[in-house]
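batch_manifest entry 22 of 60
target: THUMP domain-containing protein
source organism: Pseudanabaena catenata USMAC16
requested by: lab member K.T.
priority: normal
notes from requester: please return tokens only, no post-processing; we will run our own comparison against the previous entry in this batch. if the run fails, retry once and flag.
--- input ---
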Amino acid sequence: MNQYFATVARGLEALAAQELEQLGAHSVEAGFCGVSFEGDRTLLYRVNLWARLPFRILMHLDQFDCLDADDLYQGIKAIDWSEFLTPEMTLAVNATGKNDQLNHTHFTALKVKNAIVDQQMDRFGERSDVDTHEADLRIGVHIDDNGCTVSLDSSGNSLHRRGYRPAVGAAPLKESLAAALIQMSGWQPDQMFYDPLCGSGTLPLEASLKALNIAPGMFREHFGFETWLDFDQDLLARLIQEADDNRLDALPAPIWGSDRNPEVVDQAIVNAKNCGLANHVYFSSLDLAEVVAPADSGVVFCNPPYGERLGRDSDLGAFYKLLGNVLKQQFKGWTAFVLSGNKQLSQTIGLKCAERTAVLNGALPCQLMKYELY
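--- output ---
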């Protein structure tokens, strides 16, 4: 059994821990901005393929006492890097954390790189090149008080970048946060899902992937572990085939999105095509004032502008009031969820909130507000 650590957005640790347990992880423990767990290589590949909430899955390599730069250099050089890296492979080092002596992550990363390539030169007379964009092996080091933790990044690019979304609006939600919000809401695939402010479609698309049991990693070009020396291509191919076999052919209930901007609706349609959902999820160009409920019941979900990046110069108070009126008048029998990063604006919705959940959208404190519409 190997030790792993899934990095997640702050505040989503407990939710991510539940997801990892459902995927078969052992000894799951939520921490700060991540979840530690144990499992074999099959689990590592499966989590990268299926997990909707984490950014990266790190495999624990070593941990040692580390007070200063010399401790760091000697500790890194004591690891047998030939098990993971040949001089023909490229490497990248990402450093986080600090202590009194190691308080600059760029210096820490440089010291780690030097220790690794010095070991290679001693053994082979040649060394790996650094490639910060597409490295064959991504190494993570975390300095914490008097210790250093060393990991390998099995994911490569962040898992929130599913690969289906080259087209995005001006202030898109991360796919992982959209998936987390849907999970928090308790929405079930047999309920209709409608986002009347859908932008480039992230919320309806993540809902569709969940409803059709589609692994979010199916659209990525590659994972970090695919360039590791012990990569098992047959295992990954089997897991991808299993995922393909288990996807559903049709949505249990309709999933819709609309937006007043025809250009971002076109982006949403492109993104739906990229993940094979063009015939499943329905997008249309529609002003909020024209929106009506397309069914007797369901879940309406939206992420209106906060005034941070979008709509700063427009009358957002009137827009939020309109949103409240549309929900109240057109969506009787539905449950609404609104993500807002502006408390003052959210009060102008004019509806009684049944529940509020604190959420971070990047560094911005937000609230996911639930409204029961009668």
